[in-house]
Amino acid sequence: MKFLSLLLIIPFMSSKQPQKEHLIFLQYAHFIKDAKQTTLFLIEDTPTQPKEQVASKKYCLDYEILKTVALTEAVADSLKEIVLEEKNYIAEAQKSCPMVAKYAITFKKKNNQSFTLILSSAPCEKVTVSCSKKDFKKSYFDLKEKNEILVFIEKLVME
Amino acid sequence: MSKLYLYFIAIQRIVCLILFFCSIANQTQAQSLYEIVFEVGNISYKGFLVYFNEEEAYMRIGYYDNKKYNVVEVKYKSIIEKSGDYNTFVMIGSNPTYITKVDRGVTYNPDHFIWVWNDKYQHNEPYVTDDPHFHEDNITLAKSYREITIKDLTESYLRQFFGSGEEQYKSLLRMGTVVSGSTTATQANTNQNTNNGTNTNTQSNTTNATLHLVLAINTEIPDIGRSCSVDQKSMETEFKEISKAIGMPFKKYVVVGEEFTKANLEKTLANLKVGSNDVVIFYYSGHGFRWSDQTDSYPQLDMRYSEYTKLSANTSLSLSAVYHAITGKNARLNLIMGDCCNSDIGRNQFTNSSFMVSRSFQGAEVEKLKKLFLQSNGNLMFSGSSPGEYAWCNINGGFFTLSFLQALKEEIGFMRNESPSWERIVQNTKKNTQYKINNCDGCQRQTPISYMTINQK
Q1: Please, what's the largest Cα pairwise distance for chain B?
Q2: Fewest CB within a 10 Å sphere: which of A48, B33, B48, B419?
Q3: What domain of life does the native source organism fall in (chain A) (predicted)?
């Protein structure tokens, strides 16, 4: 049974609400929306400690990069839109299964304005969100079962 | 600070106000009791709410109508919902039944209660309406809302809502007397031993038995570590209080923090020395999964505290292996529980290494605890999820763990007349878990599975 209509009729709620922040990216969502550079990587499933990393390999937030997937401007724009869609994330609860990384995406607006997402698809769909801004704490979220983000990425990788 | 975190904090605050989480997340009574006072059309109503779980609650409502005092009982089911920034906890009333005599044809429209909050707004009192359509004009704010304490359970207070011959009245009065009186839980235990037929056996069980609690909790892992810590605290408090109440020595073994490794858990289990009359409880809260080629229905426990450690057979072990390791020690009663996912990791096992062959317990009736922990023998393996499924958690802990504690408390509460049974605890844990999942936006099916060979005297 749904009671969401209640939210419309309880008087105190009719007062004007402040502009809503993004559920995941907070006030920095524009780093993604206006990103000049969007990059998709296939990565190792487990990060490598910085002291164990080797110069001949490239890393994204300690995860070894296995492959870089080229994105056209149109594809990058679609990816931004999908990543910003709040419906792809679960806010109420988390799954008790391990993060096994598969993909990384970086969105760069300027050097000090960027987001990096590390995504896991199995055993469950999870994402770690890191931002260049110090006041944005590294965060862990679960993705909905039929989220568009992994579907979109997996289609790109298959092509 | 992330918005999600703020959201959780807001929930955490409000849960202290609303009964839903008060009853399941904290170490409280087996059934939670609340008083709500509200006014509709110049009539003042006082409600006495007995809350067992989301699906089972009732309220006795007393009020004067034309100088005549009436009491009506209304059944309740509850739902928690989120919409945008707002959260609601709604209790839907149904099946009103008059307890006092009323004239023929007199009916009572069941009241519905609504708590609303977000990270900026919270209100202790709920909104109330008897309008099934929840029309704005018919919704008012309740006058007061509070948790009823044991000290409130006096004859004069309870008689506002119950007849003196009613079973609920007797149970509530007993609850108030046993807990707030000079009799401590242990004394009550002794007294009850003296007064029942199972005296000798029970006393013998108490003196010879120890309750061993083994906790393997992934408190360090960044995504769910906080939730796992809550689980640890809940389970530890629960079983410590149970052992205290029934006079059983309590031994705790904890594998947490940076000690949370497969080797440490194996060592802890190997060193566990148990007697033939002892009770062993193993509880795991952390990440879980299953290998793609795995045939065992029970999950693998992920024993890594750092995300920099690679997942392999060397960093995980199965709940079944823990079960065999513990039951091989031949204690009287073994409960092996894992609150974790059981979803396919998408790859086969790398190697085949083998595992070694808050409050006081005021709402629990000691005699019922004894039946469960002293007069039972056998084994229970209980996983929070079926093969292919996720186990869900939030800041209040794992849904399976919360449901287990809820089911256990219901079973040992003063207001349950049946003899307590492990079978019912298992069934109610499964039912409660599914109920929480059904009311969680974005959560998917989670069906706990169990294997039980417990006999109860």
Answers
A1: 79
A2: B419
A3: Bacteria
Q: What are B226-274's pLDDT values in tens digits? A: 889 999 999 999 999 899 989 999 999 999 999 999 999 999 999 999 9
* CA distance to A147, B231, B295, B308, B444, per residue, from B343 (Å): 17, 21, 13, 21, 12
Contacts with B206 (C-beta within 8 Å, 6 or more apart), sequence order: B189, B193, B246, B247, B248, B370, B374
Structural domain that includes position B248: 185-456
Say yes or no for a CB contact (<8 Å) between A48 and B308.
yes
Provide the token pair at B39.
Answer: 């006014």
DSSP B194: H
Statement to judge: residues B114 and B224 lie in one domain: no
B313 and B449 share one domain = yes
What CA dihedral angle connects B254, B255, B257 and B260, to 10 degrees? Answer: 180
Question: Would residue B308 count as lying in a domain?
Answer: yes
| Cβ neighbours of A46 in B, within 8 Å | 307-311
Residue B154 falls within a domain, yes or no? no
Residues B143 and B248 in one domain: no
Give the predicted TM-score (pTM) of the model. 0.79
> Inter-chain contact B399–A90, Cβ cutoff 8 Å?
no
Q: Cα(B302)–Cα(A14) distance, rounded to whole angstroms? A: 47
List of E strands, B299-353: 300-302, 316-318, 333-339
Q: How many CB pairs under 8 A join A and B?
A: 157
> Considering the domain boundaries, does residue B222 fall inside one?
yes
Q: Give me the CATH number covering residue B389.
A: 3.40.50.1460
A81: Cβ contacts below 8 Å, ≥ 6 apart? none
- Give pLDDT tens digits for A67-122: 999 899 999 999 999 999 999 999 878 899 999 999 999 999 987 899 999 999 98
Query: Per the structure, how many domains does chain B have?
Result: 2
Write out chain A residues lying below 8 Å of B310, CB-based: 45-46
Q: CA-to-CA distance for B78 and B89, rounded, in angstroms?
A: 7
ipTM: 0.83
Distance of CA B144 to the CA centre of its chain: 26
How far apart are the C-alpha atoms of B38 and B21, rounded to whole Å? 22
Domains of chain A are 19-158 (3.30.1490)
| Residues B310 and B427 both lie in one domain | yes
Rounded CA separation B11/B89 (Å): 11
Query: B224 vs A126: CB contact, 8 Å cut-off?
Result: no
Closest residue of A to B136, CA-based? Answer: A9
- Same structural domain for residues B129 and B199? no
Q: Which positions 280-339 of B are in contact with A (Cβ < 8 Å)? A: 285-290, 302, 304, 307-311, 339
Residues of chain B in contact with residue A5, where contact means CB-CB under 8 angstroms, are 134
